[in-house]
Amino acid sequence: MNVDVAGLVEFAADASGENLRAVAVYTDDGEERWAYRRDDLESQYTAGTLAAIAGVLRDDGHQRTREEWAFLHGEQRATVRVFPKTIVVHFRERDGGLCLLLDTAVAAHLSGFVDACRRALDG
Asked: What Pfam families does this protein map onto (predicted)?
């Protein structure tokens, strides 16, 4: 993968501060590594966690072209997943990808909006 992983880690750490949980990197050939893990999360973000995350993200890559075609909004730049404690931002590259795992505080408006929509859906 021909991207500046160290540059992304540095930027994400500067931009999000302590809200950066981890940065995972994977290739389509099966390689996986943590480019960054916050010290307090090393026991949570293990090699097994990384393998599970990378497996899901590899599957995302197969959907990307189909989604670009269906949504008609141009090239998909990233995929965002919102969980109760974590925001996941996935950047798909030609032969793999990277994902940022962030505390929800970094995207408080987005996670709050998603929570409000869930409450409206749940009635």
From this structure: DUF7522
Which domain, by its residues, includes 90? 5-122
pLDDT in tens, 34-76: 999 999 999 999 999 999 999 998 877 666 666 777 777 777 7
Which residues, at least 6 apart from 73, have a Cβ–Cβ distance to it below 8 Å?
Answer: none
**Which tokens in the block code for residue 87?**
């925001």
Counted domains in the chain: 1
Instruction: Give the strand pairing for 86-93 and 32-37.
Output: unpaired
User: In angstroms, what CA-CA distances link 12 with 35, 92, 119?
Assistant: 12, 17, 30
Cβ neighbors of 15 (< 8 A, separation 6 or more) are: none
CATH code assigned at 78? 3.30.450.30
